[in-house]
Amino acid sequence: MNNIGLIGLAVMGQNLALNIARKGYSLSGYNRSHETTEKFIKEKVKDEKIYPYYDIKSFVESLEKPRKIILMVKAGKPVDDVIHELLPYLDEGDLIIDGGNSYFKDTDRRIKELKDKGIHYLGMGVSGGEFGALNGPSLMPGGTKEAYEMVKELLLKIAAKTDSGECCTYVGNDSAGHFVKMVHNGIEYAIMQSISEVYDVMRKVLKLTSEEIGEIFEKWNNGELNSFLMEISYKIMKHKDDKTGKPLVELILDEAEQKGTGKWTAETSLDLGIPTPSLNLAVVGRTLSFFKDDRVKLSKMVSRNYPQNALNKDEVVEDLKNALLFSVFSSFSQGMWLISEASKVYGYGIDLKEVLRIWKGGCIIRARLLDFLMEIITEDNANLLLSPKSVKFLEEKIDAVKKVTKLAKDNYIPMLTVNASLDYFYSMSEENLPANLIQGQRDFFGAHTYKRIDMDGIFHTEWQQD
Ligand code: NBP
User: Fold this and answer.
1) I want to staple 160 with a disulfide (CB 3.0 to 4.6 A). Which of 7, 332, 361, 408 is the partner?
2) Atom of ligand 1 nearest to the CA of 9
3) Is residue 232 lining ligand 1, measured as CB closer than 6 Å?
4) Does CATH place domain 435-465 in 1.20.5.320?
5) What contacts 302, CB < 8 A, 6 or more positions away?
């Protein structure tokens, strides 16, 4: 009898299986396409106790009870298909763990459906890509505490470790784990977009080569901006193409793909009424990038009047660094506010500091900045901007952000996310927004009423009489 089962032996499943087996567990593996299983066993498995199965029944029967089965299949219908196939062979008390990027509402539905059948279900966010899955990912399991306790020891063993402990915690009830993973990805989109916008200014305004930008990114990665995404960015900038010897990044088509988690985050932020403009604009940035033909056509139709003034390269680079720090901080703070609100609305019971802690290692958004965020976050100030330390951090950088965004605008360079981060801060720290005029407009055409600042009550005006 094997300790645990894993279904879905694509890149993530294979690496997670190896990670689990290397921690001393015996594992039954199953994949819909048998060739993938055979290839995996032949080419990747050495001394690990990983045993292949080619039909669901014998796969399930190979597991010790209560059975624990991890799904690492494509999110969406495949997850329902696999659950459907498993159900006839499972017993009450068995546990299914969905480690894919499932939409949190699907996870809630599955938890409910399986609860009626006595099957435990955990929706677990897994971050870190294939390297993380093999060497220690950040794990975000959500569901019942009882289900978590069934695999707690194993999850803690396979997760990444940092000076703050294992990068795995019980995130919360129901779909809390998948919700947190979704927002993690939304933040990931915003950080990637912010780094790319800064890169754009460096290459187009400062005329730096990819190699030079790589050097600057590497230096930044040794300081406050230290993070996985900064690290891979400098490595990408320095990578030379095998075929041409040119920097590979310069040969990659500028159309950014997406799988949906960023869009879900943006949609959910609108549903819950929490502003996350940097995250939303990062999704828009990817969408825009896909209209390459139109962009090329339009670029030939518009005339541009570039400024001629000389720039101090070192000063601009320093400003770009601060603008990036500003935008990364802002993206994290927007994401955490969204998680906090969801925790209240959906009753997740999420410990925000714990979420930041388990993002410190293994995952794609691991960053030195998380230590600072952990210092300032409390349950009462889920809006991180409200901390005096945040205000100080952002105010120290605001001149740099203003200079950088102006420089970008003068040079016709879009900075969707950095601009959104600045406007978010301006909006959130503005006592008087022009929403009074919007209220007047709404009342004018739709009798939607308004409140006044000088007296209590709800008012409506017959504007046409003016
Ligand atoms: P994919 O997301 O590409 O999914 C491929 C796997 O799903 C294969 O094992 C495939 O089996 C299986 N599958 C499909 Br497609 N339809 C199925 C069905 N109807 N029944 C049974 N199995 C089915 O793999 P991945 O990139 O390894 O990711 C796995 C999960 O982890 C996904 O939810 C992904 O979003 C998430 N994730 C991925 C990463 C990453 O860096 N790639 C990071 C974090 C999380 P087949 O071989 O028979 O086609």
Assistant:
1) 361
2) 9
3) no
4) yes
5) none
